[in-house]
Amino acid sequence: MPLLDADITRATALVIDANAASRSSLASMLRDCGVAHITQASRPQDARRLIENGKFDIILCEYHFPDEPVSGQDIMDDLRLSRSIPLSTVVVMISSEAGYAKVSEAAEAALDAYLVKPHTEAALRQRVGEARQRKRALKDIITKVEQGEFAEAAELCQARFDARAPAWMPAARIGAELWLRLGNARAAQVLFDAILLLGAVPWARLGLARAQYEGGSVVQARRSLESLLNEQPGYADAYDVLGRVLLDQGEPAKALDALRQASQLTPGSIARLVKHGLLAFYYGDPKEAAEVLGKAARLGLNSRIFDLQGLVLLASLQYDTADRRGLAQSLASMSSAFKAAPASARLRRFESVIRIFKCLQERRSADALKDVGGLLAELNEPDFEFEAACNVLSVMSRLDAGELAPHRDDVGTLAGRFAVSRVTSELLVKAGARQPSFEPVIQDRYADVCTHAENAVSHTVGGSPTQAVTLLLSQAEVTYNAKLIDLAMHTLQRHKDRITDAEALMSRVQALHERYRSYGTQVHMSKVDDPRSLSAATKPT
User: Fold this and answer.
1) Deepest of 48, 297, 315, 524, by most Cβ within 10 A of its Cβ?
2) Beta partners for 158?
3) Mind listing the pLDDT tens digit for each residue in 1-33?
4) What is the distance between the alpha carbons of residues 69 and 247, in angstroms, rounded to a whole number?
5) Domain boundaries, the chain
6) Do domains 8-137 and 140-232 have the same CATH topology?
7) Cβ-Cβ contacts under 8 Å for 19 (sequence gap 6 or more)
8) CA distances from 140 to 134, 175, 179, 210, 277 (A)
9) What is the DSSP secondary-structure string of 228-254?
């Protein structure tokens, strides 16, 4: 049997299949192609761990796993979302499903190819060979991505698409995703629009909706998503994005329902379970949140896919239901994660929050208050995130009146920094819901932010943009509120020719923007954390 290609003998492969005979057969076919280094996995969790901790050139994954709550699509979706599979890896999904819909969903996740059983060795050779040929054609792009040179990679993708060079369609897809990652929604939309002129492929329609949302066209994005889901009701990725859009539009109940749909379609997806659980925690039933977050933890607590913020919320539910054993386990798991990444401020704060719940449960008030004080001392740290603010409010709301008294003013400080929108204000209120006195403080601070913003706009419209920027900066340098920082920068950029000392003012704004803006506006439904991966979502997902 001839070698598949000149480099195949150096390739490494992973075969994932619960059936020993099928695994052996697939491994044999790969050996006949010339692959010498083959690893086999019979369980999804083993495969996930192998992929997260290693690198494979070829992955063959069975779609169905008997007696497991996880499908091959679930695995690939999770690993794709956490960027655990390099672009250079060829992923082939194998399924005995006769229905095209299921197999095409798997192909959407796998990106490269799929095979329907029964298949021949020749069919496998063809699929793997064609996919590897595409990867070779994209080598310059893939190399740039692996080196973190995303803008250069996106430009290469654009040029390849414009010239209709080899592998131009996958290049266009990679390029559009890179533009979104870089925050250039307009460039991404141009690419997706061009792709859609050639055919209404679901992934391009979803990409267009994402670009519309990232570009600020929320209503248009919702229409695009609803149209797509009307025709493709099994497209889990589209429900992920729809949930984000609906939350932004102030419809949390519908957003939660969208995430429920995504979880039902891919019940073994850890990432989707965490998103579902986080939104259920704030807008749904505590029992539902505990059930979903508990399932996510059982399936993937030790995986980089599991967002450890989910464990913090699960711990708070365990505290509320007096689940001593569960809370102890959550604290032990978080301590282990922090030990693996001792430089992570995020994980250190997570551990502190769960430890406070444990202290309160054991009536060790002095220890709890010491840790609360430690967290509050970090309120103005640049990396103190919106989720940290919610966690601190959650803890504070569970203190009794005497314990809370010294820290009441800190509620206003938190809200002054993180009440940047109606959604963030609402979530802050939800986080501190066990203390009704928190709500008016949070709403008042948000009203103050809106008033400052409106006054600045009035000054600009009235011909005094310098006064507008000065007022915005005076507040932003005290509160670190991202809404005020963004508005100051926008005003400077748009009216710089009419602003006195524009260069000096811009220097002050940029200093604030670099340190605080990226931590103030994010509402993470879920993100990958840093004990095992340093990548993180920069928008709600």
Assistant:
1) 315
2) none
3) 788 888 999 999 999 999 999 999 999 999 999
4) 28
5) 8-137, 140-232, 448-520
6) no
7) 62
8) 12, 13, 17, 26, 40
9) HHHH-TT-HHHHHHHHHHHHHTT-HHH
> Tell me, which fold does domain 8-137 have in CATH?
Rossmann fold (3.40.50)
Tokens of 503: 């260069």
Q: Which residues lie across from 12 on neighbouring strands? A: 37
Cβ–Cβ under 8 Å, residues 341 and 312: no
**Which residues partner with 37 through β-bridges?**
12
DSSP string, 385-441: -HHHHHHHHHHHTTS-HHHHGGGHHHHHHHHHHH--SHHHHHHHHHHTTTSTTHHHH
Tokens found for residue 311:
């464990």
Q: What is the pTM of this model?
A: 0.87
- Sole residue written with tokens 């009307």: 230
- The alpha carbon torsion through 156, 194, 222, 71 (nearest 10 deg) reads -60
Contact in structure between 47 and 61 (CB atoms under 8 Å): yes
Residues 6+ apart with CB under 8 A from 137: 165, 166, 167
First to last CA, the chain: 46
Instruction: Report which of 130, 233, 111, 126 is spatially closest to residue 173, judged by C-alpha positions.
Output: 111
Encode burial over 490-508: b for 16+ CB neighbours within 10 A, e otherwise.
Answer: ebbeebeeebeebeebbeb
Tell me the C-alpha distance between 478 and 466, whole Å: 19
Q: What is the pLDDT of residue 532?
A: 32
Q: What is the CATH number of domain 140-232?
A: 1.25.40.10
CA distance 76 to 14: 13
| pLDDT digits 0-9 by tens, 358-398 | 999 999 999 999 999 999 999 999 999 999 999 999 999 99
Peptide bond between residue 267 and the one before it cis (omega within 30 degrees of 0) = no
pLDDT tens, position by position, 422-457 = 989 999 999 999 999 999 999 999 999 999 999 999
d(CA 153, CA 457): 39
Q: What is the dihedral of CA 174, 175, 181, 182, to 10 degrees?
A: 160
DSSP 52-103: HHS--SEEEEES--TT-S--HHHHHHHHHHTT-S-TT-EEEEEE----HHHH
Report residue 444 as tokens: 């008042």
* DSSP 8-state code for residue 499: S
Distances (CA, A) of 529 to 16, 27, 67, 354: 26, 34, 30, 17
Q: Within 13 Å, how many C-alpha atoms sit on residue 521's CB side?
A: 15
